[in-house]
Amino acid sequence: MNARTSLIAAIAMTLSALSHAQVTTLDQKSANVTMDVGRYAAITGLDDFVLRTTDVSGSAGAVYNGADDFNLESNTQVHVTVTGADLSNGKYSIPTSYALDGGSTQFDTAADSVHNGSHSIAAAAKLGAISGQQAGGYSSVITVTVSAYTLTMAPISGTPMANDGCGAFRVNSLGVRTITGTGKTRDECWK
């Protein structure tokens, strides 16, 4: 055998011996790794839109409609509202209504869930008498608000309620009521 082959054989025998060695654990500890993900939501794709009519433009009672789609993504249950003023040109205003997803001006996403979905916002304006508004451009700003909150009422240490079985009372933005205590049920505490 040459020196190179002898070296390779020696390394192979050493590795083989190490693979059969018994490993004894001398100490071992475990630790929890935790994190808290904050509530977050984002609205994308909401753009300016124009109201148009199928009636004669400017005629008394003409209804103007328009809509836009947007995406809402959240990592928690959220409450969504739309607000907006009547369309105005600075001197005259036209009564205007707004709706989310063809319904009211607000909605809630599913409880205890993340959300990623497409939604629509619609606006409608109805003219009054012909002389009730001046011809020309009218505008308004709408705001879509996504919110989530939890209010906590916790007993204060050293007071008669400190050891109450209900613990802390919580209510979120959707009206869901919970408790942190284990001595009573939610319904016993929230009377």
Quick recap of the structure?
With 191 residues, this protein is mostly beta strands.
Plain-language structure description:
The protein is mainly β. It has 2 domains: 41-148, Sandwich (Immunoglobulin-like), CATH 2.60.40.1090; 151-189, no CATH class. It has helices spanning 3-19, 186-189, and strands at 41-44, 52-53, 63-74, 79-84, 87-88, 93-94, 96-100, 106-108, 115-126, 142-147, 150-153, 169-172, 177-179. The strands form 4 sheets. Strands 1, 2, 3, 7 and 9 form a 5-stranded antiparallel sheet that branches. Strands 8-4-10 form a 3-stranded antiparallel sheet, with no helix packed on it. Strands 11-12-13 form a 3-stranded antiparallel sheet, with no helix packed on it. 7% of the residues are buried. The mean pLDDT is 89.
Number of domains: 2
CATH superfamily of the largest domain: Fimbrial-type adhesion domain
Shape assignment: elongated
CATH topology of the largest domain: Immunoglobulin-like
- Can you count the helices? 2
List key phrases describing it.
2 domains, about 190 residues, mainly beta, three-stranded antiparallel sheet, five-stranded antiparallel sheet
SSE blueprint:
Elements: H1 3-19, E1 41-44, E2 52-53, E3 63-74, E4 79-84, E5 87-88, E6 93-94, E7 96-100, E8 106-108, E9 115-126, E10 142-147, E11 150-153, E12 169-172, E13 177-179, H2 186-189
Antiparallel strand pairs: 1-3, 2-3, 3-9, 4-8, 4-10, 5-6, 7-9, 11-12, 12-13
